[in-house]
């Protein structure tokens, strides 16, 4: 039995102080993005292409339109923003930097607010990470920023026949059990100095991707940086260096480099609900 006052599990309700805190947070971050040359876009809640962004499409809330084409509630904004700007609005704007403040939805009834941005046709991820770091500094918080490169675990899995699920599931003990000297060194990497040492003994086939990770780390101004070369995230579209921001078991942000329709771009999302909990504490 559903009572009149109940709301679905996973949905969000803001009122009073929490609604004001949410609005103030969104306004502050939007102002910072505006200063950095980003313009706002609000995309439709419904999408035809969410399966291309989400690893597990069982998380999508799906139904059919009037032509029996599959539609999903928006579970991720990145690829839709890029497609809309480059395909639908391409003749009316040449602007490359966009931000949005809007919820995402996942099965069965979960909604999460996020503040995100996409930097279209730009490929220096350090530029975007430094903007992220400036936002964190302006919010007066100092979470861990974890830097990774998705190509490293993918290459290791392919070239050395190591189960990719070890990386996807973070099964570090199983990787240690393989007793491979250079792999053990990579597992222990936490900072620039560790990565430099690991590169010296790493196989040639992964050195270029490790050096790309190192070069990015050297350009990052944010101080609370941790390097995790073997981390494998869940978003399908990141195809190069990427990052996530963590504090108190909350993931505050995710971002990285990706390609859409042959265009290399950058993007991140700040998770409003997690940020509000951190700021409240």
Automatic annotation (TrEMBL):
<keyword id="KW-0368">Histidine biosynthesis</keyword>
<dbReference type="GO" id="GO:0016757">
    <property type="term" value="F:glycosyltransferase activity"/>
</dbReference>
<feature type="domain" description="Class II Histidinyl-tRNA synthetase (HisRS)-like catalytic core">
    <location>
        <begin position="18"/>
        <end position="274"/>
    </location>
</feature>
<dbReference type="GO" id="GO:0004821">
    <property type="term" value="F:histidine-tRNA ligase activity"/>
</dbReference>
<keyword id="KW-0328">Glycosyltransferase</keyword>
<dbReference type="GO" id="GO:0000105">
    <property type="term" value="P:L-histidine biosynthetic process"/>
</dbReference>
<dbReference type="GO" id="GO:0006427">
    <property type="term" value="P:histidyl-tRNA aminoacylation"/>
</dbReference>
<dbReference type="Pfam" id="PF13393">
    <property type="entry name" value="tRNA-synt_His"/>
</dbReference>
<dbReference type="GO" id="GO:0005737">
    <property type="term" value="C:cytoplasm"/>
</dbReference>
<dbReference type="InterPro" id="IPR041715">
    <property type="entry name" value="HisRS-like_core"/>
</dbReference>
<keyword id="KW-0028">Amino-acid biosynthesis</keyword>
<dbReference type="InterPro" id="IPR004516">
    <property type="entry name" value="HisRS/HisZ"/>
</dbReference>
<dbReference type="InterPro" id="IPR045864">
    <property type="entry name" value="aa-tRNA-synth_II/BPL/LPL"/>
</dbReference>
<protein>
    <submittedName>
        <fullName>ATP phosphoribosyltransferase regulatory subunit</fullName>
    </submittedName>
</protein>
<keyword id="KW-0808">Transferase</keyword>
């Amino acid at each position: 039995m559903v009572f009149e006052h109940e709301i679905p599990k996973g949905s969000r309700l803001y009122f009073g102080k929490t609604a004001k805190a949410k609005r103030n947070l969104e306004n502050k971050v939007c102002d910072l993005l505006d200063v950095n040359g980003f313009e706002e876009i609000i995309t439709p809640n419904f999408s035809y292409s969410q399966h291309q962004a989400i690893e597990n499409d069982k998380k999508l809330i799906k139904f059919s339109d009037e032509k029996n084409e599959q539609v999903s509630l928006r579970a991720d904004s990145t690829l839709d923003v890029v497609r809309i700007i480059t395909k639908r609005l391409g003749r009316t704007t040449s602007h490359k930097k966009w931000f949005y403040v809007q919820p995402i939805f996942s099965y069965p009834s979960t909604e999460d607010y996020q503040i995100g941005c996409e930097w279209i046709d730009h490929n220096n991820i350090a530029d975007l990470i430094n903007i992220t770091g400036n936002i964190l500094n302006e919010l007066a918080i100092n979470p861990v920023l974890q830097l990774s490169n998705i190509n490293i675990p993918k290459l290791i899995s392919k070239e050395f026949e190591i189960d990719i699920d070890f990386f996807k599931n973070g099964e570090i003990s199983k990787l240690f059990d393989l007793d491979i000297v250079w792999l053990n060194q990579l597992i222990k990497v936490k900072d620039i100095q560790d990565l430099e040492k690991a590169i010296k003994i790493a196989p040639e086939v992964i050195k270029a991707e490790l050096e790309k990770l190192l070069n990015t780390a050297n350009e990052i101004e944010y101080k609370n940086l941790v390097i995790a070369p073997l981390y494998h995230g869940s978003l399908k579209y990141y195809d190069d260096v990427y990052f996530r921001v963590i504090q108190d078991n909350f993931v505050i942000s995710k971002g990285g480099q990706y390609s859409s329709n042959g265009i290399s771009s950058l993007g991140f999302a700040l998770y409003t609900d997690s940020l509000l909990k951190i700021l409240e504490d």
